[in-house]
Amino acid sequence: MESAGNRSVQRACAVLRCFQQSPLPLGLAQVAEAAGLNKPTTYRMLMALVEGGMIERLRKNTYALKGNTLRGRSYRLGYATQSEEFSFSRLVSESVRASAYNAGIELLELNNRYSPTTAVRNAETFVREGVHLVIEFQTSLESASTVASKLVDAAIPLIAIDIPHPGGLYFGANNYRAGMIAGRALAHACKDRWRGQFDELILLELKMAGPLVRSRLTGMIAGLREVLGDVKDDKIRFMNGNGRYETSLAAMRKDLGRSKSRKILLGAINDPSCLGALSAFMEAGRGADCLAISHNGALEARRELRRPGTSLIGSVAYFPEQYGEGVMQLALDTLQGRRVPPAVFVKHELLDRQTVDRFYPNDPALAEHDADSLLYSSR
C-alpha cells in the first residue's frame, strides 16, 4: 500500500518537473494543470518546496525554480515593435515586455514606426548591440529579406511576428484559417438577412504585407463559397485600404460615390480598415446596404459589435494580449537549443454580438476616456 509520505514525494516531484520543463515562471493554475493536481494540493506542495529552498515565490501565485539558470543568465533580446501608435501593436508590446520581465530577460526595444526603412536601421542597431535574439514585428514584406539577412549574417536568431522573414521562426496568425472563419460568418449573416443574395464582395487588403497576410482574404472567399455555393469572381473586388482607418475611409467614400450596388459584403484585413470603410457607409446613409467582417478583435471592433444596429457582424480575434508568453517561450527554447517548430500559430475565435462578452467580459468596465484614447490598430 502506498504511504502518505510516498504520495507527497511523488506530488512534489510532479510539481518540480513542471518548472524543469518551462523556463518561464508559472502560476498556481498552470502548475496544477501540468502536474495533474487540484489547486489546494498544488499550493501545499509549492509552499513546502519554497520552504525547502527548491522553489522561489516571485509574487502572489507566481513561482520559479530556485536558482533557475535561465533567470540568472544575462540574456539580452532585441524587440522591434511595429508601431506604438496602434492599439494592436501596443498590446503585443505590453505582453512581450511583461513576459520578458517575468523571465528576468533584458529587452532592448526599438520602434519600427510602420516604416520599412526604420525596420532595416533597427536591425542594424541590434547587430551592433550584439543581442542574443531578435523578436521582429514589422509589416513590410519588401524589407523582411533585408532585415533577416542582416541578422542571419550576424548569427542572431530571429522570431518574426505575423509577417514571415526568411530564415526566421514565425509566430502569429494562421491567416487562411482565420479567413475561413470570417468568410463562413459573413456568409451565414448574408443568408439570414439577405437570403444569400448580394451584389458584390469588397475585400480591403494590405498590399505591402504580402501574400501570407492576403490569405486572410482568400480564406474569406473560400469560407463564403463553402456556405453560399459558387460565388462568381466578377462579384469580388479588392481594394487597398493599407490596413488603416483613414485610407480605407477615403477609398470607400470614393467607391460609394459611383457604386450602384445595394447589397455589399465587406471583408477587411483588420479592424481599422473595416471600421474606416463602415464609416463611409454611415456617412452616405447606406449602413443598411453593408454586412461587414474583420480581423484582430481589437477593442474598437468590440465596441462596434456592441453598438445597436451596427453593420459589423463579427471580428476574428487574435488575442494580442497573449502574444508575449508564447513568443518568450519560443525565444528561450531557441536559445537553450531545444527543438522548436518553424511556425507557432495563435488561436482564433469569432467575436460577434453573442460571444464578445464571453471572451472580453471586462470591456464594459473600461473607462470611456481610456477607450477613446486608443488609435486604430494596423497589422
Helix-strand layout with pairing:
Layout: H1 4-21, E1 26-27, H2 28-35, H3 39-51, E2 55-59, E3 62-65, H4 69-72, E4 76-81, H5 87-102, E5 106-111, H6 116-129, E6 133-136, H7 141-153, E7 158-161, E8 169-172, H8 175-194, E9 200-205, H9 211-228, E10 236-240, H10 245-256, E11 264-268, H11 271-283, E12 290-296, H12 299-305, E13 312-317, H13 323-335, E14 343-345, E15 349-351, H14 356-359, H15 368-373
Parallel strand pairs: 4-5, 4-6, 6-7, 7-8, 8-14, 9-10, 9-11, 11-12, 12-13
Antiparallel strand pairs: 1-3, 2-3, 13-15
Q: Which CATH top level class of the largest domain fits?
A: Alpha Beta
Radius of gyration: 23 Å
- The structural domain count equals 3
- Count of helix runs: 15
CATH architecture of the largest domain: 3-Layer(aba) Sandwich
Mean pLDDT: 89
> How many E strands?
15
Which strands sit side by side, in order, in the main sheet?
A: 5-4-6-7-8-14
What percent of residues are in strands?
15-25%
Which features would summarize this protein structure in a list?
379 residues; alpha/beta; Arc Repressor Mutant, subunit A; Rossmann fold; 3 domains; 6-stranded mixed β-sheet; 15 helices; 47% helix; 18% strand
